[in-house]
Amino acid sequence: MEKRVAQLIAVSVIFLACVTAGCRSRNAGASGAKTLKLAFVTNNSADFWTIARRGVEKADEELPDVEAEFRITADGTAAEQQRVVDDLLTKGVQAIAISPVDPQNQTALIDAAAKQALVFTQDSDAPQSARTCYIGTDNVAAGRQAGQLIREAIPEGGAIMLFVGKLDARNAQERVQGIKEVLAGSNIHIIDVRTDDADNVRAKANAADTLVRYPDIKGLVGLWSYNGPAILNAVREAGKVGRVRIITFDEADETLAGIKAGAIHATVVQQPYEFGYQAIKRMAQAVRGDRSFIPATKQIIVPTLVVNSANVDEFTQRINTLRGR
Description:
Distance between the termini: 76 Å
Largest sheet: 6 strands, parallel
Radius of gyration: 26 Å
Shape: elongated
Strand content: 15-25%
Strand order of the largest sheet: 2-1-3-4-5-11
């Protein structure tokens, strides 16, 4: 009897040991699941990126094994982006979605980063680099939309000026290209493209100076998100609201208010929320080994929309929801 009891105790101990080991193994597997470290890097600190951040955060919430870091480059320079990327790589980030401010001269940066991590471009592409995929706007098509709005706003023709942060950025170059394509053969001519290095003060000063130098100018066109408000403020201070037509890009609060007030003709808006959301979702998918979603062009295009007096109220309500207001 004693021998039988001893055998039962021994079996029980072995069984409990196995169960405990199994539980520990399963718990280790659950708690030790590899976390994917991903990052999203902006090209400046404009409010435009607030909406992209919401998309990053939403994707981060939906992916339990992902840790997504959102990095803003305050001064909008290639040098600062280099520092940000170096820091992320040092942290062991496995994938980075970046909006390069100077794609041609940042090819080496992207190529070097791509040897250590997966690299996507978003908002501004660098197709000659080793980036895996681009997610964002077809900026030539967006430029064509803006060109149509310019023709619509200035049917009588005349001189216009374009404004943007940097002409080195591919999105700026392509928007200018699209505008020029649509205006070709019309009686609207572009005097020049003024740059401001993503500086709000300079952006307004450029617009104000243009109004003084060219008192008969018919239209001012802002290609980056903060350009719209800067142009609007300069036109208001010059007392030329209604006489100088304004066409912009993106959905800054002042831009939408200007459209509602009739001071801005229209704006071409991107969908930065989708930039952030899709970048994190797709990078996670690619890091896991599935790249079947990448088209032959290596570009995932997010369509642009036109916001004017007819739909500005509806759009404002929707965008404020995305901003968490």
